[in-house]
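Weekly structure sync, notes
Attendees: PL (lead), two postdocs, one rotation student
Agenda item 3: pending single-chain targets
PL asked that the sequence for the first pending target be pasted directly into the notes so everyone works from the same version. It is reproduced below exactly as submitted, 258 residues in total.
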Amino acid sequence: MFGPLDLIVPPTVLLTAVLTLPFTIASRILTGNFSDLTVWPKLKHLWFKHFWWWFGPASKPLFASSVRPLLAEASGIVLDIGPASGIWMPEFGEAVKKNPGKIKKIYGIEPNTLFHPQLLSQAKANGLAHIYEPVAAYAEELEGKGIAKGSIDTVITVHVLCSVGDHADTVVKELYDYLKPGGQWLVYEHVVSRHTAVKAFQAINNVFWPTLLDGCTLDRDTEQMLRNAGQWDSIAIGPDPKDGYFETLPHTIGRLVK
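Predicted structure, written out during the meeting:
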């Protein structure tokens, strides 16, 4: 996107994540919630929430031209996986305004419940309160939340499969099972670079990346995992045309139909 300057993106993001941590610690001390500082999963989720509070909206313009047309294809009953604070909620709102009834229900699958108040607020602000429901669950827990396998028309993953841990391939196959025959998976994910030198640079930064960014990884071959998730009627995914050689957060984008 920016040529060789793309190489400064991972170190810059890591630095800003580190600089967010003192704010997170101070917020717990000032509110008297000291226990949050002694439990790593709690601290990690809270830290990422504070980081994403500003980084999500700040980085959105870099990806909006790719993501907006993709989200406009959503229809029926939708699983929006890992929406965090809901920065793409306005795009869903626009889609519903343009074509009322095209989207019947949106489940925002967000295990980090610290984001749920923001999701509900965003849904209300964008005219989606009647169809949007945050769900505190991981992929393997969705049936227990009343979401049946084979019942979903659209699965959406935008910048989330990088953060699902070492069992990402299992998560992808699990989500595949929730799609109806003919259901679609809309994807925009940053993935491992196709270029050896940049891939090595990703690996160096990835030593710190998952710890500082709530489990996110830079070097996951998400595109191949999606292709192998199950039997697809059609696969139309590939590199984002905007990505250049030096892109340290290259993306795969497109649509798969079960």
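Discussion points:
- The first helix runs from residue 9 to 31.
- The chain has a mean pLDDT of 95.
Action: rotation student to compare against the earlier draft before next sync.
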